[in-house]
Amino acid sequence: MAIIIDGAKLAQEIRTEIKAEVEELIKSNRRAPGLAVIQVGDDPASTIYVRNKFKACAEVGMESFGFTLEDSVSEQEVLRLISDLNTDSRIDGILCQLPLPTQIDQNKIIFAIAPDKDVDGFHPYNVGLLLMGNPEALVACTPLGCMEMLKAYGIPTRGKRAVVIGRSNIVGRPMAALLLSADCTVTTTHSHTPAEDLPGICREADILVAATGKAGLITPDFINSDQVILDVGISRTADGKIVGDVDFATVEPLVKAITPVPGGVGPMTIAMLLKNTLTSYRRRMAD
Ligand code: NAD
Question: Side-chain half-sphere of 33: how many Cα atoms within 13 Å?
Fold first, then answer.
């Protein structure tokens, strides 16, 4: 039986710590940290994510500022809003919920957010710092949450082999960069990795991070008994259940430690958004 890495519990502990820090700030007559969230259109999944972010802010005493724009909004209008938020002294973090409608160039939006308010860690400046191993980087929340889980469970990284499945800008690539900075030997695999090679590459891993969104991809032939698996994937089955990339029922009994889905990486992502917002606030206040 594997150790179940309880992301929900850990995320709650982090949120409690952040809440205490925010209460201290308010007691000493400082303003609360502020997060601005831009949502374009009314995609139901995005609406749920945004609502959860507001709820998380409220719980820890942070201020949130929501901007819901019409699906037909022009790129120029979104850029104008970001420019205002960049100079708004009440706001420490800005994020724009992705995906965006086709008339808006996602990269232009990411590039427009001031790097010091880029709490999603998507701006090239922060990505550059991350690749350089510079701790000043604001780091994408999901991979940051994965690293926090490894730390909290005392899972060593130095000299270990890590395999990341997926190379997206929001999960796979920053994950690989963080593991590299944590002294792992890192292999990144992706959709062009020959399917017949993937199990063998993954079996070599001390730490396996799966971030594909392909339900049940990771089966017992991908693993070894000393392995720690972080399952980032989220898929919905035909009967409405949320599952990860790992075939949990067959894999869990065979590995050392594993994150469940739900209740693993997911809750850590929002906790890291709060953490990044507080970091950004503290840096701004120290200026
Ligand atoms: P994405 O679609 O941008 O990237 C998926 C990656 O997986 C790609 O790099 C692709 O090359 C790779 N891939 C796909 N099929 C593969 C296969 N058969 N073999 C090897 N590689 C394969 O998705 P993303 O944004 O990186 O998200 C990945 C998954 O993580 C999704 O299920 C997403 O919902 C989930 N996610 C979860 C959280 C969270 O908080 N838990 C946050 C972000 C994303």
Answer: 35
